[in-house]
Amino acid sequence: MSTAVWPPIDPEDLIKEEEASLAHELDWLLSYLQESLASLKSGLEECAALLSPDKGASTLVLSSLRSESIKGYVTRVGARILKGDVALKFATPPSSSRGSAVAAGASQKLTISGEAQAPTLTLEAVTAARSLINASLDVIDVTAWTGDATDAGFIAGQLRLLFENVQEARQTLKGTSAAQLRRRWWEDAYDESVFDPPCPPTISFHLSIADAALVLQVRALEPANTPPHADSITGFGIRDRLAVALGQSKTQTHEEIGETFVYRGREVRVKEKHRVESQDPALLSAMAKLSGLEHSVAMSRRALDTVMGKCD
Description:
Helix content: 40-55%
Largest sheet: 5 strands, antiparallel
Structural class: alpha+beta
Shape: elongated
Strand content: 15-25%
Number of helices: 6
Number of strands: 9
Radius of gyration: 28 Å
Distance between the termini: 26 Å
Oligomer: single chain
């Protein structure tokens, strides 16, 4: 079955009619996109509000589920951690530092300092996401008020830039991969005076964002040149075998055993590692909204490319 125009139209006239029809469709689409920008701006402003300090404080519980390794909470306001108390209990004590050591099984409490002169503990991912959202709002303002709304090439370029910013903001809240998180912890050592009293240099305390959740990783460290226990055979010595025989759990193993890291200018090894996470409702909501906005911008780009004849 085929279709035909009746009465017949000269091929040259048909081409002109097709071009005129595409021009009308492009004009309509460009007008529609201007209206959709207002909706996109409203959604981005909601995301910015969710990450703003004006949103209020979010108190998040950070506690391990089946052990006493980590018990505590932190309070997030915007990108800053303003309050927090976390009690750590290591099966193996961190190496002694400054004349003191934490005994195995004893609790080490870390408290976020409330002093005005204390350094601020900041979540870089939240700061980056807010910056990208603000950049997206700037793109919309330029598109709506400064540029030529009838220039399809200009609008296509602005939509591409908007898509990249929104996509990167969502990926920032989604978080980096486990391998990337593992590579960065020793480079992002917090100032010891963030805590009151200061955090011992033999304990690594690292906060990050993954899947819109706050992730805490703590590590008990020892100097890289520390010799193994004399009673240890491949890391499972007489003391460990006796503890297991009495019903205690085997010494923790993790993927960083045997590796050497440079932490605070010293070569160290990780004796013990624990990880907990706490879902943040505001971050979850912001990431979901950004995902929807990303899809909306992608559909607008596809529609404009189709009318402009750029689709494959």
